[in-house]
Amino acid sequence: EKTDAREVGLQVFNNFQMIHPEFSFVLDNDLKHKTIVKMYRNHLEQVLIILMDNAVKYSQERKEVHMTISKNSRYVEIVVQDFGEGISQDNLDKVFNRFYRVDKARSRDKGGNGLGLSIARRLIEGYHGKLSVESVIGQGSVFRISLPLSSEQEESQTIKDTEKN
Ligand code: ATP
């Protein structure tokens, strides 16, 4: 259950780019090398698909999605940012609840049932990671995944850091 987070991130990004030619996707990839997290590949892939799919579903006007992949000595961070309808402060915590949808009537045509984000958060927390959101209504949303690096990766990172100093 070791996965290269960088590779999965790039793959999901490229797939969305192909499926949604009407969107402009921007990738900010800070990672030059493999970045191993202790997680099933399918699980990370599923989480990223949920976030990217939402970013596309809830951006009617400004069709732009940014993905940023970075890390520090202990965590990998993958950020998915859109410039769509955004989420009000009241609803920010609730979007991770099962079956919660901000606008039930209006978003029915988008075919969701309010499970995506609850599944995504459960998966990430299952690996001692965090999934959080910041958003401004009318301006867009930023979803942030942070996942601990596998201990192996952490060790090699520490060695590299020591070599640098
Ligand atoms: P599905 O179960 O198919 O994912 P869903 O999109 O309704 O359906 P969630 O992914 O759990 O379910 O999202 C819950 C609610 O949070 C959505 O109905 C939507 O109102 C809001 N939401 C999620 N992502 C975004 C986003 N990027 N921008 C604005 N609102 C969002």
TrEMBL record:
Residues 1-151 form the Histidine kinase domain. Signal peptide: none annotated. It is found in: Membrane. This is Signal transduction histidine-protein kinase ArlS. It comes from Ligilactobacillus ubinensis. The chain holds residues 344 to 508 of 508 of the full protein.
